[in-house]
Structures are given as C-alpha cells and as structure tokens.
Specification:
By secondary structure, the protein is an alpha+beta fold. The protein has helices at about 10-15, 65-80, 135-140, 145-155, and strands at about 5, 10, 20-30, 35-40, 55, 55-60, 80-95, 105-115, 125-135. The strands form three sheets. The chain has a four-stranded mixed β-sheet with strand order 6-3-8-7, sandwiched between helices. A three-stranded antiparallel β-sheet has the order 5-4-9. The termini are far apart.
C-alpha cells in the first residue's frame, strides 16, 4: 500500500466505506385539522436519531427520482399514498456517527404533502409509532434535528 493510498494503515477504499453519503427525502404531511404526521424512529445504530419523532421518508435509491422516492417511502413505512404539494425551501444536512463507528452524511430534502389514501400505521421495523400532532405539541416533543424548522417553514 502506497502512502498516498493509505490513511493510518488503511486503504482509502476502506476509509470511504466507513463514511457514506446519501440523499434522504421526507414528507411533511398535514391534515385538514392542521395536525402534522410524525413517526417515532427506532434506530439503535444511530443514537442521535433513535426514539426521536420524524417525518416519514428515507433514502433515494440509485437512479430514482426524489418525488417517486418519497411516495414509495410513505407506502413502505406508513402504508399511505401522498400527493406532493411543494418542495420545501430548505435543504438540510446531517452527519451521524453510528454505533459501529461508521459515519453517514444525509442530504435531506423535504416535501410538503397531503394524504390521499391509506390509514397511517407503522409498517417498517424502524417505525415504532405514527401519530398526528399539533404545532404546539411538536414544539414540546423530542424530534430529529431539523423537523421543527420544517414545521415553521410550512406555516408560511
């Protein structure tokens, strides 16, 4: 192994496998009563996200359109069909160190959406609970970083 291709005795490929970057899409879904749908995340691999409330969503697969990805994620995680209303005017970024010492960098894109079919319920192993919240309730609960900022933006 040449020095240019090594970091602390490890290959660049090995180091890069410990650091992953991906695009995540999330949906801020609001009902006619003004309540916002959140799900409680179960993710002991990422302690900064474990047992925090978040919007439904997930990774964009290679070659997938982000709008198709958020529709798919809502079907897979909470069993619902959504209609996208708009792209929220803010993109967020989060870097998390996992319990296996790998790092992941998420570029987060949020869509405001409405529910057009299905009854929200946990369908994914990483979703413990699904619940509608008022804006006031959201301000008092433990959410994933950035969720409250998107809620504020949705009131514009």
């Amino acid at each position: 192994m040449t020095p240019a291709l090594a970091v602390a005795g490890r290959s660049i490929k090995s180091v890069m496998e410990d650091k992953r970057q991906f695009v995540v899409v999330i949906a801020l879904i609001q009902n006619v009563e003004g309540k916002i749908l959140l799900q409680k995340r179960l993710d002991p691999l990422v302690l900064d996200a474990h047992e925090k409330w978040e919007f439904p969503g997930g990774r964009v697969d290679y070659g997938e359109n982000p709008e198709d990805a958020i529709r798919r994620e809502c079907r897979e995680e909470i069993g619902c069909e959504i209609k996208i209303k708009r792209l929220m005017p803010s993109i967020q970024s989060a870097v998390w160190t996992r319990t296996d010492d790998k790092e992941q960098h998420a570029i987060i894109v949020c869509y405001e959406a409405e529910l057009i079919g299905g009854d929200p319920r946990p369908l994914d192993k990483k979703v413990a609970e699904v619940k509608w919240f008022t804006r006031a309730e959201i301000s008092r609960i433990d959410t994933l970083k950035g969720i409250k900022e998107y809620v504020e933006l949705s009131g514009e």
